[in-house]
Design brief:
alpha+beta; Rossmann fold; four-stranded mixed beta sheet; 4 strands
Length: 107
């Protein structure tokens, strides 16, 4: 997810923006195994997300000093490593049968 929400230079101000960023942080927590990239000029707004960034950059964009922060969302890395992503054979069998039939029909 890449987001460039308002950060008060042209749109929005103060508490409204803090509420917006809190809501964005709450919504992003629902996306397990995803990453969020956020562009803003205000560090306080990044903190309002309530998420811990794992990478940050500062740069100039359109005459503004902006911060870009990256967040890993959802499960903690240890939980992801321990997750069993194996598909049970009974769910794969119909697909394998269909692929076999398609290959036979091509010959």
């Amino acid at each position: 997810i890449l987001a460039n929400p308002p950060y008060g230079n042209r749109l929005g101000r103060g508490d409204d923006l803090v509420s917006l960023y809190r809501l964005l942080g709450d919504r992003c927590r629902a996306f397990a195994n995803a990453s969020l990239g956020l562009i803003t000029s205000e560090r306080e707004l990044v903190q309002a997300l309530g998420l811990r960034s794992n990478k940050k950059w500062e740069m100039q964009a359109g005459g503004l000093k902006v911060n870009i922060a990256r967040f890993e969302l959802g499960l903690k890395s240890e939980q992801i490593k321990n997750q069993d992503n194996t598909i049970p054979p009974e769910e794969v069998l119909p697909l394998l049968n269909r692929l076999s039939k398609n290959l036979k029909n091509r010959s």
